[in-house]
Design goal:
Layout (H helix, E strand, L loop, with lengths): L4 E5 L4 H13 L5 E4 L10 H5 L3 H6 L1 E3 L2 H4 L5 E5 L10 E2 L1 H10 L4 E5 L8 H4 L4 E3 L12 H18 L20 H15 L11 H13 L5 H19 L1
Parallel strand pairs: 1-2, 1-6, 2-3, 4-6, 4-7, 5-7
Helix pairs in contact: 1-7, 5-7, 8-9, 8-10
Amino acid sequence: MTAPIIVLVRPQLGENIGKAARAMLNFGLTEMRIVSPRDGWPNPSAGPAAAGADIVLDQAKVYDSTAEAIADCEHVYATTVRKRGVTKPVVGPDGAARMMHSESGRHAILFGREASGLGTEDVALARHILTVPINPEFGSLNLAQAVILTAYEWSRIRREAGNEELVQPTAEEELLPPAPQEELDGLVAHFEEMLSPRGYFLPEARAEASLRTLRNVLTKPGWNHLEIRTLRGVLSTLERDRRD
């Protein structure tokens, strides 16, 4: 069992990064990744707000894009409400925590910037939407609160499982984990490269929406690396046949 990675996407204030680190360490999570922090990194305001969670801040890694931050992860959860035009399985903190303990591979949880949350392009990278069932008339969680809710549920399920995996599949049942994000991105790019010359993404005004829908379709099954390699082989064969 591997602890989930907390990914802060374009956070604005150093204090909020520090508070998120404090929330993580309270429940045993130490791996933080930060995507394009507004005020740069390291941030002098983060340390005091972390209240001693220095190990999280010292080991934090910074990335230029969300895709780079999750490239080695097989399971990605976007903490957000449902996004229009994005169709993905929706889980709560409890359901996500159980998946993290039962499904092999690296798990990453995406959290958006304080003012506006995750962008549609970030949510499109995830395989699940993680939504907290809060008061529909006042849905206002700050960054640290959102982190602590998911971290707590992961810790609770870990204790419930006695620090062991909830599911131990037999040899006959064992399945390969979903492929890392970078392999999935490569498959999407391969489709895009083949479809663009044939006018699939026309008219141009709908190109972005069409690509996002294609990504959602290809993301949903949770292909393992052998399946993605097979699909890439099929596409390469079709390309050769077209050239011949």
